[in-house]
Amino acid sequence: AKRAGGNGYTLFESRMDADAHAQLSLQAELRHAAERGELMLYYQPKIAGRGGQIHSVEALLRWRHPRRGLIGPAEFIPLAERFGFIAQVGQWVVEETCRQMHEWSAQGVHIRVAINLSAQQLRDADLAGKIGRAIRCYDIAPDRLLCEITESAAMEDVESTQRVFDGLARIGIFLSIDDFGTGFSSLGYLRRLPAKQLKIDRSFVQDLETSPDARAIVDAVVQLAHALGLKVVAEGVETEAQRAILVALGSDELQGYLFARPMPAMDLLDWMLDRTP
Ligand code: C2E
Ligand code: CA
Ligand code: CA
Ligand code: CA
């Protein structure tokens, strides 16, 4: 049994997940997905809270499976991590993002792009070196690339996180703490990381309209982030009411289906053209 997911790809139900055979064959196919040209990045805009301009987009990975159709990252990133080829997949994401940014630059589109890094990539002592070589190769200004790392991934191995963050900050790459509020990071630790941005997890945004607690948490997080010199992005904004509350609470940027779903690079250009008056 399968059903269409919110991003247009297929979600397999748990019976499928439990099927070791299916996992193994998927794993074997994923190993070659990058070289076969089956991986693809979709891009979702981040909108300025006040003004509504687009400062940046987030690159979200998709796998165009020859038989199963579009598969979302929640399904195959864990496989790539478990079977030891997340580094390859992650490197493909870095290269493809830089290639796309180079192409957009040539078309006069100078937009910032955020990529997602997994916990395992943070264990690679040369990660900053690899990203640095890619941006030089494609002539990308370092401050146009953002790296999003979830709070829980950042907390898995505090020392390597610090090392990678420092390495990336040294070459001028912006860092963002993703899914904030879902992990258990200490404020003292957060202060030591050279991050520029904090993304409030969708679970808080979802509850804003009904839960005074969610509202109090978002309010506190925005205040805290601003006090530490961090910009705030709220993810998963789906309703006008959520947007209004988030802007009132001071969220710097907003992202969610209310504005745009993740889309292929070509559609993004059309979408941006449609928005310019
Ligand atoms: P994330 O980084 O928290 O990304 C946000 C997810 O929420 C995306 O799901 C996005 O499509 C979805 N989303 C955006 N706006 C809305 C909304 O208004 N409502 C709802 N219901 N959902 C919304 P997606 O693309 O399936 O990605 C899932 C996760 O997979 C990401 O969560 C990220 O942690 C991971 N991921 C995606 N691309 C990569 C990648 O290149 N590398 C790694 N390591 N992880 C990735
Ligand atoms: Ca993210
Ligand atoms: Ca997120
Ligand atoms: Ca999230």
TrEMBL record:
A GO CC term assigned to this protein in UniProt: membrane
Occurrences of domain EAL (ranges): 23-276
Signal peptide extent: none
Superkingdom of source: Bacteria
Keyword field: Membrane, Transmembrane, Transmembrane helix
Name by which UniProt lists this protein: Diguanylate cyclase (GGDEF)-like protein
Species for this entry: Roseateles saccharophilus (Pseudomonas saccharophila)
Section covered of the full-length record: 429 to 705 of 718
